[in-house]
Inverse folding.
């Protein structure tokens, strides 16, 4: 070997090539595999809590729909919320799970809020909203994608509740309204039904001008009829409490005076005046049954509605303390009286709730949700749903219309067989 040949041989590298390749592979593993392994570890640690959270928020099906049908999960959670009482805390037990899932200790605070403080319940724009709760949840699909290939099972197989997980009661579905034709109640302050041999006649009045509609098919179809016929003698512009006995009418008043009703009793028509409300108010609804009357008065400003119970056994009327929701400026109220029960309907943001009393308003039942315009896909703009309570003998019909549209040919209704305690599809 010559000197020139020796000089052409390159000098050896200061490290072994296999060593460099090993270091490179370790680096790639650290950059790619370690984060995926960590994602797999995190996924295994939260999938059970994720399913437990679904059960806690939405009931028995929550652990499935939270992953497979998020829209249905949100619908169930919303139904739980709006069905709860204003002072209830429907998600209080779920706060710890939300904190564990999100890793944020403050996430638990929103879950301690009362139902009545949520925008969806009707609290107003400045309140809590459900999106606050959903925003704290981890994205399982993204974590599962990052965890591959260390975790290869589909999420539907991984998301399983733990043993002993507590589940909420499944929120009940609300009844869908049925259709009636020709029930034109727009502007009616007085509403009372009279059963005759020719069908049921619904007497309606502004207090000054009466009109009537008749149904021969149990209330599904209504046609105009005379308000002065013999079958309804004495009912025009009056709410008859007992045939041949007592009836209520809206009393005329001097300018600036308080609204009042007249109670006419006996065959001689002896009348007594019962004042109610405040100066400047007007009578918006007058309803009655065999035991007395209920009156809804309205002032000039929003949120000034008052409900008065006027039993026959008493010489005057007493104001009923309304729930806080009914005092809001954008709430719409209606009242009725059937089978010695006072019924109050409150509508706000497309939700209609009902409360009843069997002791002249001394105690009222908690507000019960009976209609949700969004859930049933109602054609009305949710904020515009107006409830109209129509007595039908011992039953009570709830008509659902838009403002100034109660004279439409077709309207949606629910029916109650238990004096307003619950409503069903008609």
């Amino acid at each position: 070997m010559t000197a020139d040949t020796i000089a052409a041989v390159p000098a050896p590298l200061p490290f072994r090539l296999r060593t460099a390749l090993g270091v490179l592979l370790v680096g790639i593993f650290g950059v790619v595999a370690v984060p995926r392994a960590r994602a797999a570890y995190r996924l295994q640690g939260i999938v059970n809590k994720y399913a437990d959270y679904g059960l806690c928020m939405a009931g028995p099906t929550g652990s499935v729909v939270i992953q497979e049908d998020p829209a249905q999960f949100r619908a169930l959670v919303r139904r739980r919320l709006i069905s709860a009482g204003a002072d209830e805390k429907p998600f209080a037990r779920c706060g710890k799970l939300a904190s564990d899932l999100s890793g944020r200790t403050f996430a638990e605070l929103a879950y301690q809020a009362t139902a009545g403080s949520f925008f969806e319940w009707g609290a107003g724009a400045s309140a809590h909203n459900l999106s606050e709760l959903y925003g704290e949840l981890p994205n399982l699909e993204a974590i599962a994608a990052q965890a591959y290939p260390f975790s290869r099972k589909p999420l539907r197989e991984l998301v399983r509740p733990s043993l002993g997980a507590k589940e909420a009661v499944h929120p009940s579905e609300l009844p869908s309204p049925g259709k009636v034709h020709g029930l034109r109640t727009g502007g009616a302050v007085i509403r009372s039904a009279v059963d005759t041999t020719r069908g049921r006649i619904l007497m309606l009045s502004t207090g000054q001008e009466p009109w009537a509609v008749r149904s021969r098919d149990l209330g599904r179809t209504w046609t105009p009829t005379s308000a002065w016929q013999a079958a309804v003698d004495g009912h025009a512009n009056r709410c008859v409490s007992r045939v041949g006995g007592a009836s209520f009418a809206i009393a005329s008043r001097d300018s600036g005076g308080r609204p009042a009703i007249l109670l006419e009793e006996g065959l001689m028509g002896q009348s007594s005046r019962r004042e109610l409300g405040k100066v400047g108010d007007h009578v918006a609804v007058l309803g009655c049954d065999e035991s007395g009357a209920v009156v809804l008065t309205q002032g000039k400003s929003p949120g000034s509605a008052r409900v008065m119970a006027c039993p026959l056994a008493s010489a005057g009327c007493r104001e009923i303390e309304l729930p806080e929701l009914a005092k809001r400026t954008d709430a719409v109220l209606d009242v009725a009286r059937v089978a010695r029960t006072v019924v109050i309907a409150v509508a706000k943001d497309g939700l209609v709730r009902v409360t009843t009393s069997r002791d002249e308003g001394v105690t009222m039942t908690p507000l019960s949700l009976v209609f949700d315009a969004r859930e049933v896909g109602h054609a009305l703009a949710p904020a515009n749903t107006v409830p109209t309570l129509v007595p039908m003998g011992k039953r009570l019909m709830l008509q659902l219309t838009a403002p100034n549209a109660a004279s439409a040919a077709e309207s949606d209704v629910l029916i109650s067989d238990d004096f307003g305690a619950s409503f069903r599809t008609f």
